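Researcher: Structure prediction, please.
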Amino acid sequence: MKNNASRYSPKEISRLMKERGTGPLSLGRNFSEILFRSLSQLPREVVDWALENIIFISDLDVFSAYVINLEEALSKGKIFLIVLGGTLLKTSEEEQDLTVAHEIAHCCLGHHTLFLDQSSIKKSEATDEGDADALALLWLRK
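Model: Predicted structure follows.
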């Protein structure tokens, strides 16, 4: 059973992102709502870590194109980028929460995927996916 006292509300997460200058990039209203709600399902320590280390963006047609200054992101301590895809809008809230938690778990577990070496991706993919699922489910059940 979840301990709601150990979680931020969606409004608190939005406020924290604004205060820390870590707001999501290029997220339309729907994606922002999904992200804030999904993060509110996770323990505070996980959210705090995510806000310090991850940039969240969406791949919808919010803009025709945009640039992410990686040097600036790195100077702010951001070392991960999570792209939320348009299909996320077509899933249930439970699936959205699990997807966001799963991707954060990949970051916490050090699963770094560079799409340059497909053979290394295939070798570790099954284990990495299972580990990310297990950690995400643990966080969501706390």
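Model: The chain has a mean pLDDT of 81.
Researcher: Thanks, that helps.
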